[in-house]
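User: Structure please.
Assistant: Input sequence and predicted structure:
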Amino acid sequence: MRNIKYTDSAQFQCLEHLREAFMDLYLVHCGLEHCQPSHSIGPSFRDEYIIHFVLEGKGSYTVGGITYFLSSGQMFLINPGEEVRYGADPDEPWTYAWVGFNGIRAASTLKNCGFSKQSYVLPFKKQDVLVEHVSNILTSSQLSLSNDLKRNAYLLLLFSYLMDNYNSIFGQTHKNGDIRYDYGSSVYVEQAIDYIKWNHSRGINVTDIADYIGISRTYLNHVFQKELGISSQKFLMDFRLHKAASLLMSSDLPVTEVSAEVGYDDSLAFSKAFKKKFGLSPKNYRSHKETMEHFTVKQPSTDELLQLMKP
């Protein structure tokens, strides 16, 4: 077993290798770092859960083949046993705080903070409150039973803050088994589009999207019809096909690879859907790309997608 270690410098504060003092939820390590440009970690695996909170600057986080580009006010989760890589931006390197933890209640606690296997990145507000909790943990660095209790208390307060943060941002109320948001159904659509943008290559379906947001498939379809005038299934299919058209125009990838890149396991089914959408097979579309530029859709932002898809 490694010895408990506390490091305190201008660029790096870290309390690590803590013993398992509690079974339900316990701190493994905690820290604050002002990273150097392009400083990176990984690919690596961890035995514990870790949440990083981006306080300043920018960086990226890669998990499950998906790269998230993050900035101040966002946090990202590392799950045990998953290969991850993360690093600071070369021009605006991030400063982040983090907590590593474990315990039999860790997974359920994270779920109540908004994290899931499909939701590794979330926003946070009230940065000063978060930094205060982390600083209090680091201040309680001396090894004693009293400080064990203090560190765990501050960890629990941190998770209480994260649960309140999630409820504050997404305004949860419950009705008929669905989670509803106080400031309109457009939030569901924006969440769904973000999920599709990051996960369309993984063969997701409408049920996956609804489960990620926490509403029923029927209600998800309702809000898409309300906000965009089309079903959620049609939006997902159109997104994939427009992305495929962009890849055909901008790369030399074989059609089978383009099909896989946009989430189709069956390249024949992809070709049929593509031809139905654009009037040409993927192969013919590529060969006519000089005259087909008006079919190409660049990867738009969430706001642009909302505007593009409105009737």
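The two ends are 62 Å apart (CA to CA).
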